[in-house]
Amino acid sequence: MSQLCIKANVTGRVQGVGFRFHTAHEGLKYSLKGYAKNLPDGSVEIMACGEESDIDSLLLWLASGVKLADVQSINTERLEWRHMDGFAIK
């Protein structure tokens, strides 16, 4: 299995609905490290590092997110592996 990092930008109604909290919970469930952070444009940025299959599982979850969210798009960028601790809510 290969380890990688991704940065994802999730747009739609994703702020003020618990999206970062639930993303962090899902990330930890899949043993990923990283963060979820609100951006000024109303989107949420997610950095996640871990096994490729676990990253794929998180990306599938992000497509629907939480019940109150309305995900419009997810843009991802594959990054070089880097060590991170925990899954933070920024």
From TrEMBL:
<dbReference type="InterPro" id="IPR036046">
    <property type="entry name" value="Acylphosphatase-like_dom_sf"/>
</dbReference>
<feature type="active site">
    <location>
        <position position="20"/>
    </location>
</feature>
<feature type="domain" description="Acylphosphatase-like">
    <location>
        <begin position="5"/>
        <end position="90"/>
    </location>
</feature>
<keyword id="KW-0378">Hydrolase</keyword>
<feature type="active site">
    <location>
        <position position="38"/>
    </location>
</feature>
<comment type="similarity">
    <text>Belongs to the acylphosphatase family.</text>
</comment>
<dbReference type="InterPro" id="IPR020456">
    <property type="entry name" value="Acylphosphatase"/>
</dbReference>
<dbReference type="InterPro" id="IPR001792">
    <property type="entry name" value="Acylphosphatase-like_dom"/>
</dbReference>
<protein>
    <recommendedName>
        <fullName>Acylphosphatase</fullName>
        <ecNumber>3.6.1.7</ecNumber>
    </recommendedName>
</protein>
<dbReference type="Pfam" id="PF00708">
    <property type="entry name" value="Acylphosphatase"/>
</dbReference>
<dbReference type="InterPro" id="IPR017968">
    <property type="entry name" value="Acylphosphatase_CS"/>
</dbReference>
